[in-house]
Design a protein that fits this description.
14% strand, globular, binds 2-phosphoglycolic acid
Length: 253
């Protein structure tokens, strides 16, 4: 068993406010008083569900996160949400650079970098930076090169104090929502590689202290083997986080 410290559920574009409230009531009941409480939990929800989740999870230790944010303070950016708006709601986390944002919404390493800087400068919100290679990149054997390039670009101009306040999620694109999971060895290898990359870019302490989690079709049945690796500090769970009982089963592994 590795040192599992953080498990977050990423709801993506699922659940209405009523459904979010129902989930929260069941999930906090399950979380309370369980050994799960030793692992930090968070629910990363659509913007319109954040306030209800913050209200429902108050005092439970369960965190709430946004799935994206804009890098400007404010402005004529129809459809976007600023860090100040997230601060006001009181969210704890914000995903930056999820592969679905990169793929469908033209997120680039440049915008990811600006968003990280904005979160770090203007809030205490913990960024969850997502990185990962495509199927073709893995087939070509260049997955480490790809992930290292992504991390270097995404963290450009940041210093070790900035990175110490972040979580990095390794999410191989080919494993997200596909039912394909990286083998425990692949997850372990890449999380270890990310840690060595942070060591080279910053220092050993930063590398050791940054939680590096795995995401991509994690479910109760495969969580134990993924969590067995000593480099994997937790998980970002998509599909299997939508049902509170199934999501909680992952904490019990
Ligand atoms: P998945 O999603 O567990 O449904 O593969 C993971 C994620 O995108 O964070």
């Amino acid at each position: 068993m590795g040192r599992i410290t953080f498990i977050a559920g990423n709801w993506k574009m699922y659940k209405t406010t009523a459904e979010a409230r129902e989930f929260a009531r069941r999930f906090k009941e399950l979380y309370r008083g369980k050994k799960a409480a030793e692992v930090k939990a968070a629910v990363i929800a659509p913007y319109t569900q954040l306030a209800v989740l913050v209200e429902e999870f108050a005092g439970t230790g369960i965190g709430v996160g946004a799935q994206n944010v804009h890098f400007a303070d404010e402005g004529a950016y129809t459809g976007e949400i600023s860090v100040a708006m997230l601060n006001e709601i009181g969210v704890d986390y914000c995903i930056v650079g999820h592969s679905e944002r990169r793929r469908y919404f033209a997120e680039t390493d440049d915008t990811v970098n600006l968003k990280l800087k904005q979160l770090l400068a203007k809030s205490n919100i913990i960024p969850i930076l997502c990185v990962g290679e495509t199927f073709d990149e893995r087939e070509a054997g260049i997955q480490e090169q790809r992930v290292a390039e992504e991390i270097r670009a995404d963290l450009e101009d940041l210093d070790k104090a900035d990175v110490a306040g972040m979580i990095i999620a390794y999410e191989p694109i080919w494993a997200i929502g596909t039912g394909k999971t990286a083998t425990p060895a692949q997850a372990e290898e890449m999380c270890g590689f990310i840690r060595r990359t942070l060591d080279r870019m910053f220092d050993e302490e930063t590398a050791a202290d940054t939680p590096i989690i795995y995401g991509g079709s994690v479910k109760p049945s495969n969580a134990p083997e993924i969590f067995a690796g000593s480099e994997v500090d937790g998980a970002l769970v998509g599909g299997a986080s939508l049902d509170p009982d199934i999501f909680m089963e992952i904490f019990d592994r």
